[in-house]
Amino acid sequence: MGQKIVGCKWVFKKKEGAPDTDSVRYKARLVAKDYSQTEGVDFNEVFSPVIKHTSIRVLFAMVAHFNLELEQLDVKTAFLHGELDEQIFMHQPEGFIVEGKEDHVCRLKKSLYGLKQSPRQWYLRFDTFMFEHGYSRNKYDSCVYHKKLNDGFFVYLLLYVDDMLIAAKDMSEINELKSQLKHEFEMKNLGATKKILGMEIHRNRREGSLFLSQEKYIKKVLERFGMLDAKPVKTLLAAHFRLSADLSPQTEEEEQYMSCVPYASVVGSIMYAMVCTRPNISHTVSVVSRYMDKPGKVH
After folding, report:
1. What order of strands is seen across the sheet that includes strand 144-148?
2. Which of 34, 84, 216, 271 is at 20 to 30 A from 133, Cα to Cα?
3. Chain centroid offset of residue 264 CA
4. Can you give the pTM of this predicted structure?
5. Any residues with CB less than 8 A from the CB of 39 and at least 6 apart, and which?
6. Rounded Cα–Cα distance for residues 44 and 116 (Å)
7. pLDDT by 10-residue block (mean), the chain, 299 residues
């Protein structure tokens, strides 16, 4: 009695498969409406770390240099594995309302997608699992786990929410860790890593090289903002471009025009490419980012 009830809804999504496959999946997911949660009642701590892109690049460099095996796993419905500390009640989901008990609600025993604390509860559950199996957490990145083997080599696991990268010298060590994970969680084995966080991975083990590409992502960005047919240039920010705050809209007409330009979205999209695979555009992105508040036509 007197408990606040959290709402829920169904979310439908089409998810593309890995490169060179046609495994497109259609997913239906029950999601809680977190806006109806109250801090201090329905949740307390919500922070959950994610892997740094620097750590991913370091692992890729080690994989190429030491010729390590690199495999990828995906946790199915990861957030459903988290244990809730709070007492949360939720409305019955659409399509699953019990006849004759329409006024009843569901008490959540485990976390659900959409709850504010779900990412944190999943991370805490996974972190406990890794410690129980002899792995240590990197002190510079909380989503990097490692375990030293008898032969002096290491097994590395990198976690990005529900995506995992596992690297080791011997495939048997990776298979052992996979087996342990599958025993605890429902996993999908994606095999040799081909794509992670929108980055396509091209590896030539004979040459000892590993390349990252975001070609598809960048084409999607160009298409989204109507620039597929834009003229390419070699110089990112030519010397004659002198950007300043003085170029911001000065009249009401200019402000109205710029209100229809998705400047922040463009910069944010390019910034993600910069962080992942294109550090060469860092300076240019830094310059155009200064005018996010009030960009003008020249910006």
Report:
1. 136-137, 144-148, 154-160, 163-168, 69-75, 187-192
2. 84
3. 20
4. 0.81
5. none
6. 9
7. 81 75 79 79 79 92 92 89 87 89 89 89 92 92 91 90 91 92 90 89 89 92 90 84 84 85 91 91 90 85
